[in-house]
Amino acid sequence: MINKYLMIHNEIATKIEAGDYTTNSLLPSEHELKEQYGTSRETIRKALNLLAQNGYIQKIRGKGSVVIKNSKLDFPVSGLVSFHELAEKMKEKPRTIVQKFSLEKPNEYIRQQLNVKAKDAVWHVNRIREINGERIILDKDYLNKSIVPHLTKEICEHSIFHYLENELNLVISFAKKEIVVEEPTDEDKELLDLEGFHSIVIIKNYVYLEDASLFQYTESRHRPDKFRFVDFARRNQT
């Protein structure tokens, strides 16, 4: 016999897919669902948590359970893909807004991430990624000027990787990645359309050339409801 919370999950998911609960609408409150299904609040919470995990709803503090589109974009964690390349596969045309473009002396944190010295110059580029009119990614890029001697705002609006590979003839080889979930900063709240979300997914990228030179450090800060982070793994037989 199916568990009660799974039955409730399946019934609500079916209603969302059928359009009975539309995108951006609120589900009934936990108390209302408890009365509707004649069950405990704990069972309702299990069903709602599973709906959130499966991409049907987003639980927002102070609002309740908001129905979201079950169409997250697949973001390849193990791949080394630029946003421009990812955007070409999207049905909706995205937009890149260069919010900051400067050549500066790195602070201590960036010196450690890029393994540069205090006297070295670093390109600092903040790019807001907008999809369907929503600002959902903030990319904070830092590039070593000794490896990337020239950069412009126009290049950053298009694709930095494309410029490096096709104009500077650099061979981008591999990246080390770290994924964390944190509370949004004031900057995140100002530059992204977070709409009450109280967490943000951060992918930290350390990008290397074929000679193992570290030339770029990026913090890619994502709104959590828009992406599904995917990977492919193969087990090695011993």
Automatic annotation (TrEMBL):
Transmembrane segments: none annotated. InterPro entries: Bact_HTH_transcr_reg (IPR050679), Chorismate_lyase_/UTRA_dom_sf (IPR028978), TreR (IPR012770), Tscrpt_reg_HTH_GntR (IPR000524), UTRA (IPR011663), WH-like_DNA-bd_sf (IPR036388), WH_DNA-bd_sf (IPR036390). It holds the Pfam family GntR. Keywords: DNA-binding, Transcription, Transcription regulation. The keyword Metal-binding does not apply. SMART domains: HTH_GNTR, UTRA. Residues 2-70 form the HTH gntR-type domain. Gene3D superfamilies: Chorismate lyase-like, Winged helix-like DNA-binding domain superfamily/Winged helix DNA-binding domain. This is Trehalose operon repressor. It comes from Lederbergia graminis. The gene is treR.
